[in-house]
Amino acid sequence: MNFHNVEFIKSAAASAGILQDELPQIVFAGKSNVGKSSVINKVLNRKNFARVGGTPGKTVHINFFLIDKTAYFVDLPGYGYAKVAKTEKTRWRGLMESYFSSAEHIALGILIVDSRHKPTQDDVTMCNWFKQTLCPLVIVANKIDKLKKSEESGNLALIRETLELGDEVKVIPFSAEKGTNRDVLLSEIENAVKNWYN
Ligand code: GDP
Q: Assign residue 35 a region: left if phi > 0, alpha if psi is -120 to 50, beta otherwise?
């Protein structure tokens, strides 16, 4: 994959719109404002492909992007925004249930958390959705540029502990702003797609 050919395919607001075909899916999840759009744009080397910095939590839908005709990037709706109406939270849960009810298409789950803070209860819930599928999983600890060097290892350990990660799950210190460890995340994605096809 060289990420040269990136196509927005569709946005699904209900279970009927969820795209599932023979191609592997790389799934991005994270709370509102964690930098999920920025991480996706950084991976794709695009400035504004995934929408950055809109009103958080307004749009409960799943976006599907086709990458090099080989795999989908799946952008799950952000969660955890306090001001979201209860009906939207219920819709979020319903959409997640639909998406994860048929999870054999997931080649890799990418859970993005804020490296500055202990993961939230919603992050733990999201992590458990991934764990239930038994798909490969990596954690992206974003906004690492906002941490002091001396804080890094403690914060990464807290993330690992709070999410109760097995040793096989990598926690990647990442900065969508600076591009820190973009190459590490790229190779995780490429390996996952390769393994899927093998
Ligand atoms: P989303 O709601 O999760 O899609 O988050 P966005 O990608 O819209 O980013 C939310 C805000 O965080 C924006 O102001 C971004 O510029 C900022 N941001 C995203 N990633 C980073 C990062 O790695 N470092 C810093 N310092 N800011 C970031």
A: left
Instruction: Please state, in angstroms and rounded to a whole number, the distance separating the CA atoms of residues 10 and 167.
Output: 35
Residue ranges around ligand 1 (CB below 6 Å): 30, 32-38, 52-53, 56, 78, 142-143, 145-146, 175-177
Under a CB-based contact definition with an 8 Å cutoff, are residues 25 and 66 in contact? no
Q: Taking Cα atoms as reference points, which of 137, 128, 141, 60 lies closest to residue 94?
A: 60
**Calpha distance 160→76 (Å, rounded):** 22
CA 50 → CA 42, 47, 157, distances in Å? 10, 8, 30
**Nearest Cα to 172, choosing from 138, 143, 131?**
138
Q: State both tokens at 98.
A: 């639909």
Give percent above pLDDT 90 in the chain.
80
Is the pTM here over 0.90, yes or no?
Answer: yes
pLDDT in tens, 100-110: 998 899 999 99
Q: Cα(38) to centroid of ligand 1, in Å?
A: 6
For residue 156, the CA-to-ligand 1 centroid distance in Å is 19
Ligand 1 atom nearest the C-alpha of 142 is 23
The protein residue whose alpha carbon is closest to atom 13 in ligand 1 is 53
10 Å CB burial of residue 130 (0-12, 13-18, 19+) is buried
